[in-house]
Amino acid sequence: MISFSELGLSKPVVAALSELGYEYPTEIQAGTAQYILSGLDVMASAQTGSGKTGAFALPVIECLDEPDEQPRCLVLTPTRELALQVEEEFRKFCKYKKLKTATVYGGTAFAKQIAALKKPVDVIVATPGRLLDCVEHKYVNLSKVEILILDEADRLLDLGFMPQLRKIISKLPKDRQTLMFSATLEGKVAAIASDYMQNPVTVRVNTERLDVESIDQRFVHVKEYDKDEKLIELLSAIQSDKDIEIAKSAAAKEAKSKKASKDDEPDEVELRTDSVLIFTGTKRKASWVKDRLRDAGIKAEEIHSDISQAKRESTLKRYRAGSFNVLVATDVAARGLDIPFIGHVFNYDLPELAEDYIHRIGRTGRAGRSGVATTFVSDEQKHLLASIENIIGIKKEKPKLSMAKQAALKRFHSRRR
Ligand code: AMP
Predict the structure, then answer these.
(1) CB of 336 sitting under 6 A from ligand 1
(2) Is it the case that residue 228 has pLDDT exceeding 50?
(3) 20: CA distance to ligand 1 center in Å?
(4) At what angle are helices 382-392 and 354-361 packed, to 10 degrees?
(5) pLDDT at site 359
(6) Rg for the chain (alpha carbons), in Å?
(7) Is the entire prediction scored with pTM above 0.90?
(8) 362: Cβ below 6 Å to ligand 1?
């Protein structure tokens, strides 16, 4: 296996990586670094979860040596959350380099972002709309940008950002390097490549199938009006499983601490419960589902584009910290998020695009852990199932319930009667 130094990364970057505990480059990082470091345009097919942020951030950090007055790298992302996540990765990776980063995204006051842009910034991570506002108000000057990165390019186009992208790109120097990371490289994405990239090298890494393999996918046929009840049923079964796990861990912890008092050994048993992420087709549905879950006594929160940016960020922070376990979200708000410990993804509604199914379920089964994805299929949405089966080559299955879950379900039903 190739090392980070062999990829051409210098000591300060390798040191930051080793502090993060990253031993080897991921496939996409190993596959793209040499081209990016040699200044070539690269279009790469890669998903969140494959280490794609590192694939562009690490060589970029390597290339941008001394800090400058004007931004030299611009990363465009489709969502605000992804912008924040990408900037955080940049900051982690350039711990031992003097580069400055900033995020620019909508839904929040201009003032703080403008203040950050008034200082010298090397890397800007932005969503297109707010960045364009900043460019038009001359808060930011893009004339020195050497590297443009389109992150989740397919999503940028799906969300209708093409006009803004064109305007932004027209403000950049023509002899820049352009990198594009996207789940698919076909269709509209290929058109951008031919319009804005020069002889790009194409790198494909088949991460989709890998991601999916660690996920137990279940399809549940349910009438539209029965979805809430079914969801509450399944969540209660998960909760009961968790209770059993927690009880087991607590027992193990107790046993261990008894042993520790005898042997003076440190207590290392960790109590950890997995989180649940529920995708709905619309923001109204997300609110609806969250309210129904709360009515049933389940602590749930929602994120979607009608929720203020500040609230979305604080909700995600609490979710990551484990303050609550059930998050209901739309694709726009939650796609691409890297949140460890999501044990279950529910597709309350089937996504319109089969690719989105992969993105959604890929929120679980991360970092070598296993995950469960349960998808509700109502008669109204049956037509969408065929393309999903086609893309992942799986068969519809009824959920396999463990003995513990079956018992928990029985208990749950008898309580409700
Ligand atoms: P991404 O695909 O960029 O969303 O990255 C997914 C997760 O993998 C993030 O938490 C990264 O910090 C982490 N990661 C990135 N590169 C590596 C690596 N070489 N080894 C281990 N983890 C990594």
Answers:
(1) no
(2) yes
(3) 10
(4) 70
(5) 79
(6) 23
(7) no
(8) no
